[in-house]
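Chapter review: from sequence to fold.
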Amino acid sequence: MLEVKDLSIEFLDRSSPERVLNHLNLHMEPGEIVGLVGESGSGKTMTAQAVAGLLPGHAVIKSGEIRLNGQDLLHCTKNELRNLQGNEIAMIFQEPMTSLNPVMKIGRQVEESLRLHTDLSGPERKERAIKAMLDAELPNPEDLYYKYPHQLSGGMRQRVMIASAIICHPKLLIAD
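The token string follows.
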């Protein structure tokens, strides 16, 4: 399902390029769980962001390839990649408060992928969002739907991120 071959990434925000990932290889079959372990700064997040197509602007892929079900993710158009993100590939970020919009209610944020990738009606999206929040083991999702991120605990915000990531049933779920 996922094949990463010879992936090397550099940061270009200094006077000379800094290698942050060096010749990574990774193979993953459907249904398989793979964990990357390493010290801080070892490239775990860069790997996740590269696979999800979310590398920061100062990061450059120097070599390698990333394939999802045979599709070359490094040579997709922006529209092709956007269609994959959230639909085929979803990512749960490390810090939910930097990923959640503080002025947008939780329900709308959980529904976002459905608005982008489906033609479901508002009531259908709400029903799916509440189901995803239940699947992420959030208590009282009908009440949480109308709350703002600052009204939730850190653990509940992380579960909201999980609900947002799983709502479209992606083939690849990346947890940073």
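Two observations follow directly from the output. The helical segments are 44-52, 78-84, 96-99, 106-117, 122-135, 141-144, 154-166. The chain has a mean pLDDT of 93.
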